[in-house]
């Protein structure tokens, strides 16, 4: 009887010890889950620039090719921008802006147009569905997110594709491209000449 009693007493003590260890381990695990948070993935850092130049657009219509052009002044701060156009792409002098949430165009011909994306704004204003949000990367010679078939030469990006769009980069005595030719598989074409005034860009290729 004594042996049986000692056995059950030891057994009960073992269970109590196991329970304490289990509960302590579980509390430590829950505390770790609450305090350890996943680090955010940073895809690109601060990007800012000021440029001027000329943009020409050629579109394919049912009547054939149509071309228009404008001079521009462009200021960029991360995904926010302000663009002033003169002689502008069939819409007269115009101001385009995006504050990160709302895209706005103001011109004498169209009045004020508000949209939720720069692409939608450009499409409504000019009829062209171009990836204007990617231009901020291409303008400084960097690939845009999700670009494919990137080609480099002498450490500089010379060609990059994004969906049905292809960007070609041309440099003349400059770290940044002086000329961009952006084409679509359906024949749409944009040509930008670029004068770089100021840069503060740390985005990574």
Give a brief rundown of this model.
An eleven-stranded antiparallel sheet has the order 6-5-4-3-2-1-11-10-9-8-7, covered by helices on one side. Mean pLDDT is 78; it is low at 11-44. By secondary structure, the protein is α+β, with helices and mostly antiparallel strands.
Model description:
- The protein has three helices and eleven strands, in the order H-E-E-E-E-E-E-H-H-E-E-E-E-E.
- By secondary structure, it is α+β, with helices and mostly antiparallel strands.
- Strands 6-5-4-3-2-1-11-10-9-8-7 form an eleven-stranded antiparallel β-sheet, with helices on one face.
Strand content: 35-45%
* Mean pLDDT over the full residue set: 78
| Record field, number of beta strands | 11
**End-to-end C-alpha gap:** 79 Å
What characteristic shape results from the CA principal axes? globular
Measured as a percent range, the helix fraction is 10-25%
Radius of gyration: 29 Å
Task: Please provide the ordered H/E string of secondary-structure elements.
Answer: HEEEEEEHHEEEEE
Strand order, largest beta sheet: 6-5-4-3-2-1-11-10-9-8-7
Low-confidence stretches: 11-44
Helix/strand structural class: alpha+beta
Q: What's the story with the biggest beta sheet? A: 11 strands, antiparallel
Number of helices: 3
């Amino acid at each position: 009887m004594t042996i049986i009693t000692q056995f059950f007493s030891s057994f009960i003590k073992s269970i109590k010890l196991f329970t304490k260890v289990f509960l302590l381990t579980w509390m430590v695990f829950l505390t770790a889950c609450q305090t350890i948070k996943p680090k955010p993935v940073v895809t690109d850092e601060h990007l800012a620039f000021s440029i001027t130049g000329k943009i020409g657009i050629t579109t394919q219509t049912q009547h054939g090719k149509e071309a228009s052009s404008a001079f521009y002044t462009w200021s960029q701060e991360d995904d926010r921008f302000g663009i002033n156009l003169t002689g502008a792409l069939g819409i007269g002098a115009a101001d385009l802006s995006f504050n990160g949430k709302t895209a706005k165009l103001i011109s004498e011909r169209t009045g004020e147009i508000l949209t939720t994306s720069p692409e939608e704004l450009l499409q409504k204003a000019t009829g062209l569905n171009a990836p204007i949000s990617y231009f901020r990367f291409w303008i400084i010679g960097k690939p845009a997110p999700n670009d494919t078939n990137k080609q480099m030469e002498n450490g500089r990006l010379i060609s990059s594709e994004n969906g049905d769009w292809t960007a070609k980069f041309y440099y003349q005595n400059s770290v940044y491209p002086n000329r961009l030719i952006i084409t679509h598989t359906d024949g749409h074409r944009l040509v930008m000449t670029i004068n770089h005034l100021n840069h503060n860009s740390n985005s990574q290729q």
